[in-house]
Specification:
By secondary structure, the protein is mainly β. The chain is built from 4 helices and 17 strands.
Length: 305
């Protein structure tokens, strides 16, 4: 194909030559040769909001189904860190509360009974227990002192017995409960020990409940990558950032913002195959569970600005 001042390419993951909607390749029907001053605009992105609030082990992009909590049977007793596994699926805040309470009750090592109520004015869950307990947040899971304290003795226990834990990949649901890194609801290890010494608390409030799990999606491409874009985690292959502004089952869309400089330099290339992937802010692939991605690429001369 000759060099053209403008060229428009429509991409749909359902016509991919290889892969899934999370990561796929498209073979162009004709070779696309770009002039040295060519740039690419990405617009009309549409992504199925088909990813779940809670993903289980083996899911593309990683799991987030475990909730960790410390139980104290009585004042002065040794604390136990329990782990409950939430059922994979998409939840409303109320449904998440019911699932959380049921799984924590089933996993409790000291036989505690848990209930959870959604508080709309706070967008948080109020979790009650018949015995003292404390939620474990993401900062604690990454704290070396916390890991040593609960890793040196048989303190990783549930009603089913002892379990093993990968501190590097705990597969936690802290993000759903407003307990991710740097959260205002998070307590330090020193504060946790102080609360444990008093037997824990019978009532705990979570942080901001966010059942979307992912706030933004990022469209990546190695074939169109350059050194002009810098994405989360240092990625250099991001084409576009797509805010998640719809509920589960809907459609996530992004139009071009209209700024003349919102382009991807790609001049001097000959393109036969294009690769794309949909990732979260941590660089993990997003499992669209049979959903699809479509968007438009507009190749044009670099604007004179």
């Amino acid at each position: 194909m000759d060099e053209l001042p403008f060229h428009k390419v429509f991409i749909d993951s359902r016509t991919a030559s290889l892969g899934t909607a999370s990561s796929f390749e498209v073979t162009l029907p004709e070779t696309l040769s770009l002039s040295r001053e060519a740039v690419c605009y990405v617009t009309d992105i549409a992504i199925s909001h088909s990813f779940c609030s809670v993903d289980g082990t083996g899911t593309v992009g990683g799991a987030n189904h475990f909730v960790y909590f410390v139980e104290v049977n009585a004042v002065g007793a040794n604390p136990i860190m329990c782990r409950a596994a939430l059922t994979e699926g998409s939840y409303t805040a109320e449904e998440l509360g019911g699932e959380l309470a049921a799984r924590m009750t089933a996993a409790s090592y000291v036989g505690a009974a848990y209930t959870a109520a959604y508080r709309p004015s706070l967008n948080a869950l109020q979790v009650n227990s018949s015995k003292g307990f404390l939620f474990v947040n993401k900062d604690l899971l990454q704290d070396a002192e916390f890991q040593a304290y609960f890793g040196t003795l048989p303190r990783l226990l549930t009603s089913a017995g002892e379990y093993t834990l990968s501190w590097a990949a705990p597969e936690d649901c802290c993000g759903l409960l407003g307990l991710a890194r740097g959260g205002s609801k998070n307590v330090t290890f020193a504060e946790l020990l102080s609360l444990i010494s008093f037997g824990g608390e019978a009532v705990q409030m979570t942080g901001h409940i966010d059942v979307r799990r992912r706030h933004c999606l990022y469209l990546h491409s190695q074939a169109l990558a350059n050194l002009r874009a810098l994405g989360p985690g240092g990625s250099r292959t991001v084409l576009a950032r797509v805010p998640v502004d719809s509920v589960y089952g809907g459609l996530i869309t992004r139009q071009h913002n209209g700024h003349v400089l919102d382009f991807q330099p790609c001049g001097g290339r000959t393109l036969c195959t294009l690769d794309f992937s949909v990732r979260d802010s941590f660089g993990n692939l997003v499992d669209l569970r049979g959903g699809h991605v479509s968007f438009e690429l507009l190749f044009a001369p670099k604007p004179l600005v």
